[in-house]
């Protein structure tokens, strides 16, 4: 499914920051392989979208994504709660990447334990966003690519992370 280089990969973004979403979407549009199919502002909306509930029930209008980009710090239901909910669902083809403004070690360890496929630190710098797009393309087009996380030090509470 992901091996076809000409296939559009549907992406759902969950981020409460309109500015961050704008820059991420702009970078993703520069790729011929991605199509942003939705952008939600909190975890409650993300769960409704992924579950196909409420306004997202029509999968013709709101198709299921191949990739879910989620921020951790969102109002109402945060990204951690969304990831905990996702872990209980049966979405075997869904890839999940965290885009976070934080690179706190405890957060990275927690998302790893919740089955996230990749973790990136947010940036609005265009060059770093384009690096993110390249990483996501490789991630979706290479089925056995290992999960991408910042290297975890043994002591510090913050890590440098894959900053894109």
Counting helices, strands and paired strands, the structural category is alpha/beta
**Structural domains: how many:** 1
Structure annotation, total helices? 5
Q: Which architecture per CATH? A: 3-Layer(aba) Sandwich
Strand content: 15-25%
pLDDT average, as an integer? 86
Distance between the termini: 26 Å
Largest sheet: 5 strands, parallel
- Helix amount: 25-40%
What are the low-pLDDT stretches, counting only 5+ consecutive residues below 50? 152-164
Outline, from the CA principal axes?
Answer: globular
Alpha-carbon Rg, integer: 15 Å
CATH homologous superfamily title:
Response regulator
Q: List how many beta strands DSSP finds.
A: 5
At the fold tier of CATH, the topology name is Rossmann fold
CATH class, anyone? Alpha Beta
User: How do the helices and strands follow one another from N- to C-terminus?
Assistant: EHEHEHEHEH
Q: In order across it, which strands form the biggest sheet? A: 2-1-3-4-5
How would you characterize this protein structure?
With 164 residues, this protein is α/β, with parallel strands linked by helices. The protein has one domain: Response regulator (Rossmann fold, 3-Layer(aba) Sandwich), CATH 3.40.50. The chain contains five helices and five strands, in the order βαβαβαβαβα. A five-stranded parallel sheet has the order 2-1-3-4-5, sandwiched between helices. Strand 4, helix 4 and strand 5 form a beta-alpha-beta unit. The chain is globular, with a radius of gyration of 15 Å. 32% of the residues are buried. The C terminus is likely disordered.
């Amino acid at each position: 499914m992901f091996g076809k280089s000409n296939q559009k990969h549907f992406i759902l973004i969950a981020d409460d920051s309109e500015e961050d979403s704008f820059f991420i979407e702009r970078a993703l549009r520069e790729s011929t392989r991605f199509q942003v199919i939705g952008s939600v502002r909190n975890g409650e909306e993300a769960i409704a979208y992924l579950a196909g509930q409420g306004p997202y029930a029509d999968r013709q209008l709101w198709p299921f994504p191949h990739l879910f980009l989620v921020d951790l710090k969102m109002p109402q239901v945060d990204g951690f709660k969304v990831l905990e909910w996702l872990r209980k669902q049966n979405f075997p083809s869904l890839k999940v990447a965290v885009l976070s403004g934080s690179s706190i070690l405890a957060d990275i360890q927690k998302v790893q334990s919740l089955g996230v496929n990749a973790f990136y630190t947010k940036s609005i710098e265009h060059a770093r966003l384009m690096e993110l797009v390249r990483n996501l393309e490789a991630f979706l087009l290479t089925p056995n690519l290992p999960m991408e996380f910042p290297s975890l030090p043994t002591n510090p509470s913050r890590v440098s992370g894959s900053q894109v």
